[in-house]
Amino acid sequence: MMNDDSGQKTLYLRILRSSPQEAVYRARRALTARAVKLAAAGGMTVPRIPPVDMARVRQLETPRFDIRPESGLIAQILNGKRFLLQEDGAESAADPRMLWEPARLQHLTYLLACASERPDDAPALRQAAVSMALQWLDGNPFPRGPHYASPMECGLRIPVFFYCLKVMDDPRPEAARALAGAIYRHAWWVEKRLSLYSSLGNHTICECVGLLFAGAVFRNTGAGRRWLSRGVEILKREVRHQVLDDGGPAEQSLAYHRFVLDLYRLAADFMERNGIEGSAALKPGLLSGERFLAAFEDRAGNLPDIGDSDDGHAVAPGVRPKKEKAVEKDPGEYRHFPDAGYTVIHTDAGLRFTFDHGPLGMPPLFNHGHADALSVTLSVCGRDILVDPGTYRYNGAPKWRSYFKSTRAHSTVTIDGADQAVQETGFIWSNPYECEPAACGTIEDGFLMESVHTGYRRLNPPVAHRRSILFSNRSTFTIRDTFEGEGAHDFELNFHFHPDVKLVRQGRGWSAENAGSRIFMGLTGEDEFHEVRGLESPLLGWFSPAYGARAASSVLTCRKKGHPCAVNFLTVISLTLPTIEHVHSGKAGELWKTGSRF
């Protein structure tokens, strides 16, 4: 979702001027929305709802789910609990994401999924879910109110209404008409307001999954057949666009990649179970995407926070589309993804290290990417040590939104206080950077990685930042940051830690411990880190554990000024060594003295 501010409007005008087709599409979409709302305000019924074929609905098979039930949650939902995001006072009121989350009605999906595994309780749970769906529709008449503002939200609700319609054991005609009417209206509205052109992304997948379900319900109508065809066509096209050849996400967000892949699994299973052609075309991308995410999982099955996340679920919290079989993880220690731009290292000791050498995000708006080129994360035995700081929130807190996306909030180097790209709005970037394809390879005692990004070539005079990383002895990372360019510049190296990490000074270095998992790190030569935590002016040292939540966290930082060719940083991170001085006698010291590139 996006803020409707002047900066965004200005950038949209630039985009639309360059694409007449998009300009026409957006104008038509806006005029249609206005006409429909005016008609509804005048008491007109838009659109006309055809009769639903309940016999067809009963024949449709629902997708299969994997459920991780939470003790007591069913009772809580029956007593009024809804799935909410964390709130932090006044800022929450300005963020529609807080309002939209419970209106996705995923608590109903949770009830119905649990009903399939609890036959004794199933009738009562089904009746409760249907009743809650009807109450929501009564309180939110189409197309008025905030819940019809986003076609993505409408697309996510369509499967929920289908599940409710499907489980009605003895459907009352008026209840069935209300649910079927909701499906039809939502799909009709989505079709006219699809997220296309520069808005392509995870929103588009939500909307097309909605069209798929609605099209199956109303397949006996022209509109239903059109929705089905359009939804499947775009899903097939976008799986090749949004899932890169190596399985990575075009949006450069691991959380949204999980979200999109779950939507595709939901769609593919529904299509297969109901004889809808096209699921085979989805599976190669779906499988490669699952393999990509599996490479990032630590021992606890957790993914690092890379890129935006709004904590959304494709189906519901605790409920995911069923996997046909578990994805086999690559047993290798070093996993390189050249298209998405990541290298991941795993060891038997439980270490997971990620190196980001990928692009900013999905053009032309790069909505969910962060300016995190050449940043790293590190966890040990499922405990996060070095982290991406997360997202915090999208709307209502512009300075925080800007910080969590910024280069300074990531474990890399910021030059002249500038981001690696230009933040036009809370979602839109301009002047996107690119990363040189990473040079990676094994050596006798470890693994080498190196890349350079273009983000600071827009400075006057321009600067290039190169990061080289040596992993040696299965326990030590030597990270060298070097620069090329002219003039005098300000260089700031930051490493961000999880809030649970305790930093302790040890000589010229530092130990960092999280629940028994520990690393040692420091700078060689005369350089030294100093610790900052929870600074508010300027912002530095913050972590977002969930959407709408933030906490102070520690950062080790080092700042230098000078000519690019005269400035460098050499950071040593070790799982076993409490001091850093002796690295000069090893491979890292040799590379440092010779200045050779990996």
Structural key phrases:
598 residues; alpha+beta; Glycosyltransferase; Beta-galactosidase, Chain A, domain 5; 3 domains; 8-stranded antiparallel sheet; 5-stranded antiparallel sheet; 16 helices; disordered N terminus
Structural write-up:
There is one protein chain. With 598 residues, the chain is of the alpha+beta class. The protein folds into 3 domains: 46 residues; 266 residues, Alpha/alpha barrel (Glycosyltransferase); 261 residues, Beta-galactosidase, Chain A, domain 5, CATH 2.70.98.70. 36% of the residues lie in helices and 21% in strands. Strand 6 and strand 7 form a beta hairpin. The longest helix is centred in the N-terminal third of the chain and has 22 residues. The N terminus is likely disordered.
Spatial order of the strands in the main sheet?
11-12-13-14-25-18-17-16
Give the class-level CATH name of the largest domain. Mainly Alpha
Poorly predicted ranges? 1-6
Distance between the termini: 41 Å
Main sheet overview = 8 strands, antiparallel
Structural class: alpha+beta
Q: In CATH, what is the homologous superfamily of the largest domain?
A: Chondroitin AC/alginate lyase
Approximately how much helix is present in the residues?
25-40%
Strand content: 15-25%
Number of strands: 25
Mean pLDDT: 91
| Shape assignment | elongated
CATH topology of the largest domain: Glycosyltransferase
**Tally of alpha and pi helices:** 16
- As for the number of domains, it is 3
Architecture of the largest domain, according to CATH? Answer: Alpha/alpha barrel
Determine Rg (CA atoms, Å): 26 Å
